[in-house]
Amino acid sequence: MEDVRKDGIAILVIEDDPVIAGFLQTGLQYENYRVSSCHSGKDGLDLAGQSSFDLIILDVVLPDIDGFEVCRRIRARGNDLPILMLTVKNEVSDRVRGLNSGADDYLTKPFDFDELLARIRALLRRSGKITEKKLMKAGHLSLNTETREVGQNGIPVSLTPTEFALLELFMRHPRRVFTREILLNRILGYDYDGGTNVIDVHINHLRKKLNDSPARLIRTVYGMGYAFYPDNTED
């Protein structure tokens, strides 16, 4: 059980699968969330009662107390923080049961990380924890997260969903170095079992569409991965 509560938005992940828990913790920390994680219902209830969180990601299938009961007990304490439930189950009855136990939203595994982030942001906006700009700008680039439109020097740029997800991630985190493994997990999901070279292919396509040759915007950090440098900043 790990608790890294600091200033900022704090998320508690209650998930018994170490692969998924690690994927969530790494991905959410890259989004500047403060993440605490545990792997059982009992530990989740203890942490939720001892610390102040802004949102809980709760797996349904846990080794001791199932997520439905964990959610019900959290609500019984009068805690109204947003709860997003994760499960491999996709039956309508399970979704209804999760919502009836007090969950605010429900996501079925395997899930796309961008969809998870969208659900998290929606819940945080609804609870008044964050306000979020829909239009992002970096130098001559603009990206609208609502309309899914990208422009460069006022000219529309047509991107695939994967290219859009990569560019949005880069623009949210200028100058941050992302390894291929992180990009693979973030963009294609924790259940993708192909090679990391697929990220290089998508990066090359994105560079071509942004006329980024030689690479100035999306730079290769040799031995590490890639980083985004807005074209109105100095090296």
Key words describing this protein structure:
2 domains; four-stranded antiparallel sheet; alpha/beta; disordered N terminus; Rossmann fold; 235 residues; single chain; five-stranded parallel sheet; 38% helix; Arc Repressor Mutant, subunit A; 8 helices
List the helices and strands and how they pair.
Blueprint: E1 10-14, H1 18-30, E2 34-38, H2 41-50, E3 55-59, H3 67-76, E4 83-87, H4 92-100, E5 105-108, H5 113-126, E6 135-138, E7 141-144, E8 149-152, E9 155-157, H6 161-172, E10 178-179, H7 180-188, H8 197-209, E11 218-221, E12 225-228
Parallel strand pairs: 1-2, 1-3, 3-4, 4-5
Antiparallel strand pairs: 6-7, 7-8, 8-9, 10-12, 11-12
Helix pairs in contact: 2-3, 6-8
Provide an overview of this structure:
By secondary structure, this protein is α/β, with parallel strands linked by helices. The protein has eight helices and twelve strands. The protein has two domains: 10-126, Rossmann fold; 135-228, Arc Repressor Mutant, subunit A (Orthogonal Bundle), CATH 1.10.10. Helix content is 38%, strand content 21%. Residues 1-6 have low confidence and may be disordered.
Mean pLDDT: 85
Rg, Cα atoms, Å:
19 Å
Helix/strand order, N-terminal first? EHEHEHEHEHEEEEHEHHEE
Number of continuous helical runs: 8
Low-confidence sequence ranges: 1-6
CATH architecture descriptor of the largest domain: 3-Layer(aba) Sandwich
Summarize the model shown.
With 235 residues, the protein is an alpha/beta fold.
